[in-house]
Amino acid sequence: MIKILFICHGNICRSTMAQSVMQYLVNRQGSSAAFQIDSAATSREEIGNPVHPGTVGKLQKENIPVIPHRAVQMKASDYEEYDYLIGMDSANLRNMRRIVGGDPEKKMFLLLEFAGEKGDIADPWYTGNFEDTYRDVRRGCEGLLEHLLKEEEV
């Protein structure tokens, strides 16, 4: 089983969007039994809060089921539990490395790397632009799934 943890600052917008999009893609592929997909925050600001209404609205508009989720903070033990820890932006990646004490097994990535791009996925908490965030998350998740189907035994 391939275990993926998507991570952003608060775990209510981008990482939960990526979690729902990735689950949708693997379900559509018929590979859901091969994956465990979750999400977490680097901060404690939103702990216990549900998925942001803007994320819910955008996913519903795209006919993607929203995975029920309450924000949780990433733990150091997540490094051992997950095969891929995927941040939404470079600040997330720095904080992920701080939380777990580095990345000796090279399990940490930025989501857009899998779309063949460098850069961050903008946080719609600040921008209000869930359309652009969805577009980037979707491209990243599609690239990640393509990578995993090619590189892993799925």
Automatic annotation (TrEMBL):
Gene3D superfamilies: 3.40.50.2300. The keyword Transport does not apply. The active site is at C8 (nucleophile), R14, D123 (proton donor). Its EC number is 3.1.3.48. It catalyses: O-phospho-L-tyrosyl-[protein] + H2O = L-tyrosyl-[protein] + phosphate. It is an enzyme of class 3 (hydrolase). GO terms for molecular function: protein tyrosine phosphatase activity. It holds the Pfam family LMWPc. Keywords: Hydrolase, Protein phosphatase. Residues 2-147 form the Phosphotyrosine protein phosphatase I domain. The keyword Cytoplasm does not apply. It comes from the Bacteria. Belongs to the low molecular weight phosphotyrosine protein phosphatase family. This is protein-tyrosine-phosphatase. It comes from Mogibacterium kristiansenii.
